[in-house]
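Q: For a teaching handout, I want to show students what a protein-ligand complex looks like in token form. Below are the inputs, and the small molecule is N-carbamoyl-L-aspartate. Please produce the holo structure.
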Amino acid sequence: MSPHLLSIDPLTRDHVDHLLRVAARMEPIAQRRQVTRVLEGAVLGNLFFEASTRTRVSFNAAFCRLGGSVCDTTGFTFSSMAKGESLYDTSRVMSGYCDAIVMRHPEQGSVAEFAAATHVPVINGGDGPGEHPSQALLDLYTIDKEFARLGKKLAGAHILLTGDLKYGRTVHSLIKLLSLYDPMRITLVSPPGLEMPGHVIDRVVSRGHRVEQRDSLACDFSDLDVVYTTRIQKERFTEEMSESFAGVSQDFSVGREFLNARCNNSTIVMHPLPRDSRPGANDLNVDLNGDPRLAIFRQTDNGIPMRMAIFATLLQVEALIEKDLRPVRWFVPERVGVDDAAR
Ligand code: NCD
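A: Here is the structure, written as tokens, with N-carbamoyl-L-aspartate included.
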């Protein structure tokens, strides 16, 4: 595997299967039953030049749970980029301080440009509308775990990706990742103008998958295994686009009614989050809270073992994990969320 994780493109199915297996071995640590210090002494640089809660904090927490320490910077205002520093200079400087770097940046290709100037492993935490490979890996890990629980298989599954498929970077990475596996049926539903880029669809089709594109959710999804919904990425719109898409998202909102009327009892609902829960936002509906089909918080929890697996693999310590375990000594609740099933 390359020293960096910038895109799904260079990954093979073997790489991905290896990451899924390492993530599963991280579960006792991620679930706070065991402690490891395998990255003791290592320092992560977490550079976030765009809004983030879970990606930034979960990369941070994953590194800490492996025994490392984290230095971070958020936003351009408080970084030297506000003084005109180049990605090349920032990359070289950070490489002298850190053993791994996670970067999120509003421009597509920027994280790859940053990574080209260093031998220290760099992880793309989201480059504008480009890719978000660690999110896709944790999404696949979630689908894998949910399917194991439900006795389902990925081969032949029916997966619906909906919302902003043009600017949503998580779905770009996820569909590429799914395409490495045995043929499945993938339905894409987005508002006109926000469709998945054609070159991405072509690649998935060329690998033998059946891809259907629609502009409405008003269809029969009774054989659906996963609905993966995304937020309309308004921050990437020009002013003109904001006007033409005003109110459009309401027809693409997934909630209890859609799930009960059009899907089935084992259709799982995923979303990379954040969902916009403000009244009238028309994102994934909060009326599904507490419904066992809503997998969004199991999905966010899965970010920790998968990001630990990514660090352990890039920093080449995955073989040492079990050698270093000891039990946790602090109080850990049986369930972390009020609607959670017991672990
Ligand atoms: C997403 C992102 O930033 O691409 N969030 C995330 O990292 N989980 C999705 C979004 O912002 O809509």
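A: Two things your students might notice: The first helix runs from residue 13 to 30. The chain is about 35% helix and 15% strand.
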